[in-house]
Amino acid sequence: MTISLGLGLPQMKQYDIGRDVASVARAAEETGYASLWVFERVLFPEPATQGLYGVPGLPWPDQYRSVADPLVTLALATAATGRARLGTSVLVAPLHVPFQLARSLASLDVASGGRVIAGLGTGWSLDEYAAASVAPFERRGAVLDELLDVCAAVWGPDPVSYEGELTTIAPSEVGPKPVRPIPVYLPANSPRATRRLVDRADGWMPVAMGAARLAEEWRRVQDVAAERGRERPVDVCARANARYSAKPFEGAGRQPFHGSVAQIVEDLVAHAETGVTEFLLDLQGATRDAAELIDVAAEVYEAARAAGV
Questions:
Q1: 162-202 pLDDT per residue, tens
Q2: Of 274, 276, 243, nearest to 261 (Cα)?
Q3: Rounded to whole angstroms, how far apart are CA atoms 254 and 49?
Q4: 54: part of which helix (H) or strand (E)?
Q5: Residue 41, Cβ neighbours under 10 Å: how many?
Q6: Contacts of residue 162, Cβ cutoff 8 Å, sequence gap at least 6
Q7: Against a cut of 0.70, is the pTM above it?
Q8: What kind and span of H or E run contains 258?
Q9: What angle do CA 224, 227, 229 make, to 5 degrees?
Q10: 85-109 per-position pLDDT tens digit
Protein backbone atom coordinates (compact mmCIF):
# COMPACT_ATOMS: atom_id res chain seq x y z
CA MET A 1 0.00 0.00 0.00
CA THR A 2 1.35 3.41 -0.96
CA ILE A 3 0.91 5.93 1.81
CA SER A 4 1.13 9.71 1.72
CA LEU A 5 4.20 11.14 3.44
CA GLY A 6 4.52 14.55 5.06
CA LEU A 7 7.55 16.27 6.59
CA GLY A 8 7.93 18.54 9.60
CA LEU A 9 9.38 21.94 8.72
CA PRO A 10 12.45 23.28 10.58
CA GLN A 11 11.39 25.41 13.55
CA MET A 12 13.88 24.52 16.29
CA LYS A 13 16.79 26.55 17.56
CA GLN A 14 19.50 24.94 15.38
CA TYR A 15 17.90 26.31 12.19
CA ASP A 16 18.07 29.68 10.45
CA ILE A 17 14.33 30.16 9.99
CA GLY A 18 14.51 32.90 7.36
CA ARG A 19 16.71 30.75 5.13
CA ASP A 20 16.00 27.16 6.07
CA VAL A 21 12.19 26.96 6.02
CA ALA A 22 12.03 27.83 2.32
CA SER A 23 14.93 25.58 1.33
CA VAL A 24 13.58 22.56 3.24
CA ALA A 25 10.04 23.14 1.96
CA ARG A 26 11.18 23.34 -1.67
CA ALA A 27 13.42 20.30 -1.36
CA ALA A 28 10.72 18.22 0.35
CA GLU A 29 8.18 19.06 -2.34
CA GLU A 30 10.67 18.19 -5.08
CA THR A 31 11.48 14.89 -3.35
CA GLY A 32 7.81 13.94 -3.32
CA TYR A 33 6.53 14.78 0.16
CA ALA A 34 2.82 15.51 -0.15
CA SER A 35 2.50 17.74 2.90
CA LEU A 36 4.54 20.03 5.15
CA TRP A 37 3.78 20.53 8.84
CA VAL A 38 4.46 22.78 11.82
CA PHE A 39 4.02 22.35 15.56
CA GLU A 40 3.63 24.82 18.42
CA ARG A 41 5.68 25.52 21.54
CA VAL A 42 5.66 29.07 22.88
CA LEU A 43 8.17 28.96 25.73
CA PHE A 44 10.70 26.85 27.64
CA PRO A 45 10.07 27.12 31.39
CA GLU A 46 13.00 26.89 33.82
CA PRO A 47 12.24 25.19 36.06
CA ALA A 48 9.20 23.61 34.43
CA THR A 49 6.00 23.27 36.43
CA GLN A 50 5.51 19.83 34.89
CA GLY A 51 7.42 17.34 32.77
CA LEU A 52 7.13 16.98 29.02
CA TYR A 53 3.58 16.04 27.95
CA GLY A 54 2.63 16.35 31.62
CA VAL A 55 4.70 13.27 32.57
CA PRO A 56 6.40 13.91 35.93
CA GLY A 57 10.17 14.10 35.64
CA LEU A 58 10.30 13.82 31.84
CA PRO A 59 12.60 16.64 30.68
CA TRP A 60 11.74 19.04 27.89
CA PRO A 61 14.00 18.63 24.81
CA ASP A 62 16.71 21.26 24.60
CA GLN A 63 15.52 22.18 21.09
CA TYR A 64 12.29 23.51 22.60
CA ARG A 65 14.25 26.48 23.98
CA SER A 66 13.47 28.26 20.72
CA VAL A 67 10.63 27.21 18.40
CA ALA A 68 9.55 29.48 15.56
CA ASP A 69 5.94 30.62 15.38
CA PRO A 70 3.96 28.02 13.42
CA LEU A 71 1.91 30.41 11.28
CA VAL A 72 4.95 32.49 10.32
CA THR A 73 6.74 29.26 9.39
CA LEU A 74 3.79 28.14 7.25
CA ALA A 75 3.72 31.52 5.52
CA LEU A 76 7.39 31.09 4.57
CA ALA A 77 6.66 27.60 3.24
CA THR A 78 3.63 28.86 1.33
CA ALA A 79 5.77 31.29 -0.64
CA ALA A 80 8.34 28.58 -1.44
CA THR A 81 6.03 25.80 -2.66
CA GLY A 82 3.14 25.24 -5.03
CA ARG A 83 1.77 21.74 -4.46
CA ALA A 84 2.35 20.37 -0.96
CA ARG A 85 -0.46 20.70 1.58
CA LEU A 86 0.42 22.86 4.61
CA GLY A 87 -0.68 21.63 8.01
CA THR A 88 -0.49 22.39 11.72
CA SER A 89 0.19 19.48 14.06
CA VAL A 90 -1.02 20.99 16.20
CA LEU A 91 -1.97 24.55 17.10
CA VAL A 92 -2.81 24.79 20.79
CA ALA A 93 -6.25 26.36 20.46
CA PRO A 94 -6.45 28.14 23.85
CA LEU A 95 -3.21 30.01 23.12
CA HIS A 96 -4.99 31.91 20.32
CA VAL A 97 -7.80 34.44 20.09
CA PRO A 98 -10.37 32.42 18.08
CA PHE A 99 -11.39 35.16 15.64
CA GLN A 100 -7.82 36.16 14.83
CA LEU A 101 -6.70 32.57 14.32
CA ALA A 102 -9.65 31.84 12.02
CA ARG A 103 -8.74 34.87 9.88
CA SER A 104 -5.04 33.95 9.78
CA LEU A 105 -5.78 30.42 8.62
CA ALA A 106 -8.16 31.72 5.95
CA SER A 107 -5.54 34.16 4.66
CA LEU A 108 -2.92 31.38 4.54
CA ASP A 109 -5.33 29.18 2.62
CA VAL A 110 -5.90 31.92 0.05
CA ALA A 111 -2.17 32.65 -0.23
CA SER A 112 -1.40 28.96 -0.77
CA GLY A 113 -4.17 28.34 -3.27
CA GLY A 114 -6.22 26.17 -0.92
CA ARG A 115 -3.58 23.95 0.72
CA VAL A 116 -4.04 24.54 4.46
CA ILE A 117 -4.97 21.82 6.99
CA ALA A 118 -5.91 23.09 10.46
CA GLY A 119 -4.73 20.61 13.09
CA LEU A 120 -5.99 21.87 16.46
CA GLY A 121 -5.63 20.63 20.03
CA THR A 122 -5.91 21.70 23.64
CA GLY A 123 -2.29 21.36 24.78
CA TRP A 124 -0.89 20.16 28.09
CA SER A 125 1.66 22.73 29.35
CA LEU A 126 0.50 24.60 32.43
CA ASP A 127 3.34 27.08 31.96
CA GLU A 128 2.22 27.93 28.44
CA TYR A 129 -1.34 28.39 29.67
CA ALA A 130 -0.18 30.71 32.45
CA ALA A 131 1.71 32.87 29.95
CA ALA A 132 -0.49 32.95 26.88
CA SER A 133 -3.90 31.32 27.12
CA VAL A 134 -7.22 33.08 26.61
CA ALA A 135 -8.88 30.99 29.35
CA PRO A 136 -7.82 28.77 32.28
CA PHE A 137 -6.47 25.27 31.64
CA GLU A 138 -9.68 23.79 33.04
CA ARG A 139 -11.64 25.46 30.22
CA ARG A 140 -9.46 24.14 27.39
CA GLY A 141 -12.12 21.89 25.87
CA ALA A 142 -14.69 24.68 25.84
CA VAL A 143 -12.19 27.02 24.16
CA LEU A 144 -11.53 24.46 21.43
CA ASP A 145 -15.28 24.05 20.89
CA GLU A 146 -15.68 27.81 20.54
CA LEU A 147 -12.75 28.03 18.16
CA LEU A 148 -14.38 25.41 15.93
CA ASP A 149 -17.60 27.44 15.98
CA VAL A 150 -15.79 30.68 15.17
CA CYS A 151 -13.85 29.09 12.31
CA ALA A 152 -17.07 27.73 10.81
CA ALA A 153 -18.61 31.19 11.03
CA VAL A 154 -15.64 33.18 9.74
CA TRP A 155 -14.93 30.77 6.89
CA GLY A 156 -18.61 30.70 5.92
CA PRO A 157 -20.76 33.17 4.00
CA ASP A 158 -21.17 36.81 4.92
CA PRO A 159 -22.60 38.38 6.93
CA VAL A 160 -20.70 36.60 9.71
CA SER A 161 -22.33 36.71 13.13
CA TYR A 162 -21.41 34.90 16.34
CA GLU A 163 -22.00 35.17 20.08
CA GLY A 164 -19.92 33.01 22.42
CA GLU A 165 -18.14 33.05 25.76
CA LEU A 166 -14.92 34.53 24.36
CA THR A 167 -16.02 35.88 21.00
CA THR A 168 -18.67 38.31 19.78
CA ILE A 169 -18.91 39.09 16.08
CA ALA A 170 -21.47 41.67 15.05
CA PRO A 171 -22.96 41.01 11.61
CA SER A 172 -19.98 41.74 9.36
CA GLU A 173 -18.18 40.95 6.16
CA VAL A 174 -15.03 38.99 7.05
CA GLY A 175 -12.50 38.14 4.38
CA PRO A 176 -10.68 36.75 2.64
CA LYS A 177 -12.58 33.48 2.58
CA PRO A 178 -10.72 30.17 2.26
CA VAL A 179 -10.37 28.77 -1.24
CA ARG A 180 -12.27 25.68 -0.07
CA PRO A 181 -13.50 24.45 3.31
CA ILE A 182 -10.31 24.13 5.35
CA PRO A 183 -10.01 20.55 6.68
CA VAL A 184 -9.90 20.44 10.48
CA TYR A 185 -7.96 17.64 12.18
CA LEU A 186 -8.24 16.90 15.90
CA PRO A 187 -6.66 14.48 18.36
CA ALA A 188 -8.76 11.88 20.19
CA ASN A 189 -7.13 11.32 23.56
CA SER A 190 -10.32 10.76 25.57
CA PRO A 191 -13.91 9.62 24.94
CA ARG A 192 -15.09 13.23 24.82
CA ALA A 193 -12.32 14.22 22.42
CA THR A 194 -13.16 11.25 20.20
CA ARG A 195 -16.80 12.29 20.04
CA ARG A 196 -15.75 15.86 19.17
CA LEU A 197 -13.51 14.50 16.41
CA VAL A 198 -16.24 12.31 14.94
CA ASP A 199 -18.94 14.98 15.16
CA ARG A 200 -17.01 18.09 14.15
CA ALA A 201 -13.75 17.36 12.34
CA ASP A 202 -12.54 16.09 9.00
CA GLY A 203 -9.57 14.11 10.24
CA TRP A 204 -7.70 12.60 13.17
CA MET A 205 -4.12 13.37 14.24
CA PRO A 206 -2.69 10.60 16.45
CA VAL A 207 0.94 10.12 17.47
CA ALA A 208 2.49 6.95 16.05
CA MET A 209 3.89 5.32 19.20
CA GLY A 210 3.74 1.70 18.07
CA ALA A 211 1.87 -0.15 15.32
CA ALA A 212 -0.33 -2.21 17.65
CA ARG A 213 -1.34 0.81 19.69
CA LEU A 214 -2.08 2.88 16.56
CA ALA A 215 -4.19 0.08 15.11
CA GLU A 216 -6.20 -0.18 18.33
CA GLU A 217 -6.80 3.57 18.51
CA TRP A 218 -7.77 3.72 14.82
CA ARG A 219 -10.34 0.95 15.32
CA ARG A 220 -11.74 2.84 18.30
CA VAL A 221 -12.17 6.03 16.28
CA GLN A 222 -13.85 4.11 13.47
CA ASP A 223 -16.15 2.34 15.95
CA VAL A 224 -17.23 5.65 17.50
CA ALA A 225 -17.83 7.07 14.02
CA ALA A 226 -20.10 4.13 13.21
CA GLU A 227 -21.93 4.39 16.55
CA ARG A 228 -22.62 8.11 15.98
CA GLY A 229 -23.80 7.63 12.41
CA ARG A 230 -21.00 9.48 10.66
CA GLU A 231 -21.44 8.95 6.93
CA ARG A 232 -18.21 10.38 5.52
CA PRO A 233 -14.88 8.70 6.27
CA VAL A 234 -12.51 10.05 8.91
CA ASP A 235 -9.23 11.13 7.34
CA VAL A 236 -6.11 10.47 9.38
CA CYS A 237 -2.51 11.69 9.50
CA ALA A 238 -0.30 10.06 12.14
CA ARG A 239 2.59 12.08 13.54
CA ALA A 240 5.88 10.14 13.75
CA ASN A 241 8.31 11.96 16.02
CA ALA A 242 11.48 10.52 14.52
CA ARG A 243 14.97 10.69 15.98
CA TYR A 244 17.49 10.01 13.27
CA SER A 245 20.89 8.46 13.98
CA ALA A 246 23.62 7.70 11.46
CA LYS A 247 24.17 4.40 13.27
CA PRO A 248 21.36 1.96 14.08
CA PHE A 249 19.98 2.00 17.61
CA GLU A 250 20.57 -1.36 19.25
CA GLY A 251 18.68 -3.13 22.01
CA ALA A 252 15.12 -4.13 22.76
CA GLY A 253 14.17 -0.75 24.19
CA ARG A 254 14.34 1.20 20.92
CA GLN A 255 11.50 3.70 20.57
CA PRO A 256 9.41 3.71 17.37
CA PHE A 257 10.97 5.86 14.64
CA HIS A 258 14.24 6.21 16.55
CA GLY A 259 17.39 5.06 14.76
CA SER A 260 18.90 4.81 11.30
CA VAL A 261 17.08 5.47 8.06
CA ALA A 262 16.54 1.71 7.69
CA GLN A 263 15.02 1.49 11.18
CA ILE A 264 12.75 4.51 10.60
CA VAL A 265 11.50 2.96 7.36
CA GLU A 266 11.03 -0.41 9.08
CA ASP A 267 8.76 1.29 11.62
CA LEU A 268 6.94 3.14 8.87
CA VAL A 269 6.21 -0.14 7.08
CA ALA A 270 4.87 -1.67 10.31
CA HIS A 271 2.67 1.32 11.08
CA ALA A 272 1.32 1.45 7.52
CA GLU A 273 -0.15 -2.02 8.05
CA THR A 274 -2.66 -0.46 10.46
CA GLY A 275 -4.55 1.02 7.52
CA VAL A 276 -3.51 4.60 8.30
CA THR A 277 -2.76 6.18 4.93
CA GLU A 278 -0.78 9.33 5.81
CA PHE A 279 2.20 9.88 8.09
CA LEU A 280 3.96 13.06 9.13
CA LEU A 281 7.66 12.42 9.71
CA ASP A 282 9.18 15.06 11.99
CA LEU A 283 12.92 14.54 11.58
CA GLN A 284 14.12 17.99 12.62
CA GLY A 285 14.92 17.25 16.27
CA ALA A 286 18.15 15.30 15.71
CA THR A 287 19.49 16.74 12.47
CA ARG A 288 22.24 19.33 12.81
CA ASP A 289 21.12 21.77 10.14
CA ALA A 290 18.90 22.19 7.09
CA ALA A 291 21.34 20.44 4.75
CA GLU A 292 21.28 17.28 6.87
CA LEU A 293 17.50 17.48 7.31
CA ILE A 294 17.06 17.69 3.52
CA ASP A 295 19.42 14.76 2.93
CA VAL A 296 17.89 12.50 5.58
CA ALA A 297 14.33 13.34 4.50
CA ALA A 298 15.17 12.44 0.91
CA GLU A 299 16.85 9.21 1.97
CA VAL A 300 13.89 8.18 4.13
CA TYR A 301 11.44 9.00 1.33
CA GLU A 302 13.30 6.97 -1.28
CA ALA A 303 13.81 4.03 1.09
CA ALA A 304 10.13 4.07 2.03
CA ARG A 305 9.05 3.98 -1.60
CA ALA A 306 11.55 1.19 -2.30
CA ALA A 307 9.98 -0.74 0.60
CA GLY A 308 6.58 -0.41 -1.01
CA VAL A 309 4.96 2.20 1.25
A1: 999 999 999 999 999 999 999 999 999 999 999 999 999 99
A2: 243
A3: 28
A4: none
A5: 20
A6: 149, 150, 153, 168, 169
A7: yes
A8: strand 258-259
A9: 110
A10: 999 999 999 999 999 999 999 999 9
